[in-house]
Write a structure and sequence with these properties.
about 180 residues; alpha+beta; globular
């Protein structure tokens, strides 16, 4: 299904458009405010995270804007883990003023349409267990709960609460780097 990306909208109405380099600073800023980069496994929000998606699957990267600027974004890609036929809706965030306006659902639809058009047989996403609003939004958009995994963490006794000497690598970042290398 194709979505128009440029139409006349009343003042203040959201418009969903493909991610462009001009959106990058606002996307990075919103991501830093929206994602708890200290909580595992969501530690990989960075410029390289955005760039890997944009390089590997630009048609699955969208932003919502209005007259005031960025409302939200979504970043997706093909190849989840070793499944090249699965799409991954990995990052989505909204500004507070965009909530309850259908913006997230519009972003999800644009991303999913692009991933299915690129050959995905299914699309997966993950939502932190306590994020009830995001889980409800995903259900409204046709996602169903699949595998439930609890991440257990044991810290080194010698290092106490300082954390590991080397940060834990996010497997999603590695998958996206592999996908970017194989597509380029």
């Amino acid at each position: 299904m194709s979505h128009p990306t440029h139409t006349n909208h009343p003042a203040g109405e959201a418009k969903i458009v493909p991610l462009q380099l001009t959106h990058l600073a606002d996307v990075l800023d919103l991501g830093h405010r929206a994602f708890d980069v200290n909580a595992m496994p969501y530690t990989s929000w960075s410029l390289s995270s955005v760039a890997a998606h944009f390089d590997a699957q630009p048609d699955a990267c969208w932003v919502a804007v209005d007259d005031e600027g960025l409302l939200g974004f979504v970043l997706g890609s093909l190849s989840y883990d070793e499944r090249e036929d699965w799409g991954y809706l990995e990052w989505i965030a909204l500004e507070e003023r965009a909530r309850g306006r259908g913006v997230a659902s519009g972003l999800v639809e644009h991303c999913c349409d692009a991933l299915f058009a690129a050959g995905a047989s299914r699309i997966i996403t993950d939502v932190e267990g306590s994020n009830e609003a995001s889980a409800a939004m995903m259900r409204r958009n046709g996602f169903t709960e699949g595998v439930t995994v609890t991440l257990f963490v044991r810290r080194s006794v010698q290092q106490g609460s300082r954390g590991a000497a080397h940060p834990v690598q996010d497997p999603a970042r590695s998958r996206l780097r592999r996908a970017a290398r194989s597509s380029g």
